[in-house]
Structure formats: structure tokens, C-alpha cells
Amino acid sequence: MPLRPALLNEIQTSIGSSLSPSLTTASAASDIYEAYLFCIIVDAARAEGATRVAFRSRSQENPSVFIFRTSPGYLHSTTQDYGYVEIEFPEKPVLEAHLGIRVAGASGVLHECDVCVLLQEEANVCRDNPMTVAPRSARVVLSVEAKYYAGDLGLHLGREFLGFIADTSVHKSFFVVNRTSSSIERLLSHKKKYWEHNISPRNTTDVERLRNAFQTGFKDFKAKY
Amino acid sequence: MALSSEEISKCHRSLARIAKESGLDWVVSQVESQIALGRIRTGKIRAKEVPLRNAGEELIHLGAKGRPTKFTLSEEFTPEEKLIILIEALEHAVSGVWRTAMAVCRFMSDNVSEIREVKFMPDGISREPFGLLESELHIREKGVRDFERLVAELKEAI
């Protein structure tokens, strides 16, 4: 049976009414996805028993406009009043969750962490220093490499993630994507790295598994400190 | 009866055009890369032979000598598979992005008592900022549901 003649035109109309123009770009999709994973991490902290989870910016607590970065930046940046979350477990050092900050690898090279949870003590060193200082990766408890793709992911993304891990001392690094990617999954499984796929709001089982993995990361942090 | 290969290919071209006209060039680009790569699998072939390949048929072994050895193979996607790849890519780009944006807005409004807006702003480079307003996303929900219903109808017809 041929296609209903109006079907494709209706699809075109529905695309136009689904997304505002600012949300049709690949970069916007990636930025929103990083923010989504940020939310899952905060949720995992609560699930692991965080007694204080405070959304704030550099200048205020509980900001009415919460600003996420859309490009990698320095933690101390005052370009915008970027938001972050303070996470506190009983009798443990305070943590901070940030989006899109640069961290220093063992080689001294700066790497971008799409989503990053680090010791507040380290964050304060960066914020309070008059020079531009990047946090050390060994002080990063959790990091996420977030990939939002419509088509299959290129293997180079998996290789880049392995390079990030090789040069950094992040306690736990995750590679998280919104869909499947058999070649990257195979590569990272073979290398025994943390990864998750199909992470999107509709896939509740996969999201739950990822949240549990983040929660385990917080559990390990509590055990170490 | 399912669509013919020619109808499917025509549909693919039309849908790719629609995607580009809707500002989703990046989706078409990613899909084209995926299709160009082909379906990757491992298979055993005899290293000393040159297999003949016809579309849709098994590799013909020419009675060569040598043990079968594992190689990584690439197979071309069928026209139906190519169209499905494009449709699913559009699903990620349209309803996937909308749902993810809505999830972020809901989480932030549940957790930040005074929040009015979530903004995304570049740090030190020139790139367009954008914002998420839950109210605006709600307005677009019908469009998303229409899109999902219509692409489901399209997949059914293939």
C-alpha cells in the first residue's frame, strides 16, 4: 500500500511544532543531555543518603535562573553566574557537581568533563585563586562523558574516552550515550570501562541502572574518605 | 503490501529533505555517516579467495584452500534499513530532545524552589545561548505526540 499522501507533510509540520528553533541544533541536544545526566547524578547522591543537596551559583543559593555551561570552561569563571550543586554526606568532605569544566590530567593537559563531581576543597582552591587554576583530576570523584547522537556514534569517541581515562585519575569515569553503539560498547567492555547506553527519559530501566552506578560511585567515595 | 524499494528510497530522500528544512541537517549528516559505514559484523572467510558478492545473497566461496579466518565485515544496509535508521535518528532529535528537556525542567522545578528558568550559556566563546521554560515545552507537547504517532505510522507502512 502506498504511503498516505499527506503523511510526510504532516511529519514536517509536527517537527516544526515540536521544537523551538534553538533546540534543533546538535549542540543544544548535547547540552540538554549533559544537564539531564547532571540531574541523575544529583538524584543518585540523594539515594545514597546525602543529607544536603544545595543548588546554588557562585553568587547565591537557590538561584531563580539556573545557568548551565554550553562550552568547556574554568570552574572559577565569572563570565556567567553558573550553577552547581553542593552535595554533603554525613562526616564526609563536601562535594560539588558541575557541568562542562576543565580538569587537569597527569600530563598537565586540560580535559573537559561534561559532568563532574569533585571535592569542594579543590573547587575552592580554583575559585579563590587570582590565577586561572584547573582542578586536579585526582580530586574528581565522578565524571561523565555524555554523548547525544541521532545516528550511530563513531568509534573515535570511544578512543577519546580511553585517552581521557589514561591521562586522568578520576575515581570513576562513565561514558554515557542516548542510544546503542555496538562498536564503542564492545571496545569499552573489552577495556573494562564504565559505560551505559539508551539513557533517555523513556528508558527507565537503563536510567535506573545508571543511577545505581552513580550511587555506587558515591558509596565508594564515602568508604575512601 | 509493504512499500517497494523505489518508494522507500523516494521516501528516504523526502524525509532527509524535510529534516534539513527543519534545521536538522546534523541528523542527516550523522545518518549518512552511519549508512556509509554499513552494518559491521565479524565473519569467517577463507583468506586466499576473492569472494563474489551479489546484493542479498550469501558470499560464494570459490572452493579455495586455507582455513576460514575471522575478518571484520561490512554489509550494506537495505533500503528499508536505511529509512528506519533515518526515522529513528529523527526520533532522537525531535521527541528525544523534547523529553530530555522536559525531564531537566521538571527535575529543576522539583528541586530548586525559586526557579523560573534554566539557561544554557557559553563560557568565553561566541555561541548562541538558549533557555528552557517548562511552560513552553508543555505547549509543544502536542506537536511531539503528533510526530511520534506519524512516524509510527510511517514505520508501519515500510
Report on the architecture of this protein.
The complex is a heterodimer of chains A (225) and B (158). Chain A has helices at residues 7-18, 26-47, 120-128, 155-167, 182-190, 204-224; strands at 52-57, 65-69, 83-88, 95-104, 110-119, 140-147, 172-177, 194-196. Chain A is an alpha/beta fold. A 7-stranded mixed beta sheet of chain A has the order 1-3-4-5-6-7-8, with helices on both faces. In chain A, helix 2 packs across helix 6 (204-224). The termini of chain A are far apart. Chain B has 158 residues and is an alpha+beta fold. Helix content of chain B is 54%, strand content 15%. In chain B, strands 1-2 form a two-stranded antiparallel sheet. A two-stranded antiparallel ribbon of chain B has the order 3-4. Chain B is elongated, with a radius of gyration of 23 Å. The termini of chain B are close together. Classes of the chains: A alpha/beta (225), B alpha+beta (158). Strand 2 (65-69) of chain A pairs parallel with strand 3 (117-121) of chain B.
